[in-house]
Amino acid sequence: MIVIKYGGNALPDQNTSDPVLEAIADAFLDGEQIVLVHGGGPQIDAALAEKGIGKNKVAGYRVTDEEVFNVVQSVLSGQVLRSIVNYLIGSEVNAVGLSASDGGLIRARKFEPIVDGKSVDIGYVGEVDEINPMILETLMTEGFLPVISPVATDNDGVGFNINADLVAAAVGGALRADSVLFLTDVDGIYRAWPDKSSLISEISIDELKQIAPSFADGMIPKVRAAISAIDSGAFSVRIANGTDLVSVLDALDNQGGTLVSA
């Protein structure tokens, strides 16, 4: 089975065709078990800009107060989640939309990044504390394709936005997925981004951990998520370009991008 993380920058506009979701639908209809985790960064940015909020950042992290979180939750668990589920249903896929906390799937804890040696409160931003994939196993057994938005609650019912890559990694690990496929806006992991000739086609998890400190900028969260997925139980990770249909089709056929193996 495959856990797919579909980046927000690759999501379709309303009422437009989406060849990537069509490819995912085709793989599902051909018999592949799939869980889809989505992001929504561009959609969140647009919604916050429209309201003129969410401009405060600390060390690159958006400060997510209650007003900002309410917008984030509305976009992720409303607009984006429903658009994907509706599209898949229109492609004859029996899709079910969930927030990450539904059915006890994920319990969050507050994330406080370390900045200049001190933990910093950035509001309603969380990380995965506990995961129980039983609801996903039940849905897949019954022939559904679960679609998950990366919004979860803690044990007190307080909501948090969690990085979608890390949600996909946790889900893939808990399900012991054959592959966790991260569809992003680059062709894979580069040893020296943005040098296109430094693309890594295949690497073991041990070697990736050894060279992880050398990565910078946008490669860091992708590498972190790949390591997390395999460390928590997934058998492999593939990072591929979700904005290019050929790359997506190759990835669904276990080819292309960067393969990280256990």
Strand order of the largest sheet: 5-10-2-1-13-15-16-14
**Unreliable stretches covering 5 or more consecutive residues:** none
By CATH, the topology is: Carbamate kinase
Q: Rough shape?
A: globular
CATH class: Alpha Beta
Average pLDDT value?
A: 93
Largest sheet, strands/sense/barrel: 8 strands, mixed
CATH architecture label: 3-Layer(aba) Sandwich
* Alpha-carbon distance between the two ends: 16 Å
Number of domains: 1
Helices, by number, come to 8
The fourth-level CATH homologous superfamily is Acetylglutamate kinase-like
Rg, Å, rounded: 17 Å
Range of helix content: 25-40%
How would you characterize the overall build of this protein?
The protein is of the alpha/beta class and 262 residues long. Helix content is 36%, strand content 25%. The strands form four sheets. The protein has an eight-stranded mixed beta sheet with strand order 5-10-2-1-13-15-16-14, sandwiched between helices. Helix 1 runs parallel beside helix 8, helix 2 (41-51) crosses helix 3 (66-90) and helix 5 runs parallel beside helix 7 (219-231). The radius of gyration is 17 Å and the shape is globular. The two termini are 16 Å apart. The model has no long low-confidence stretch (mean pLDDT 93).
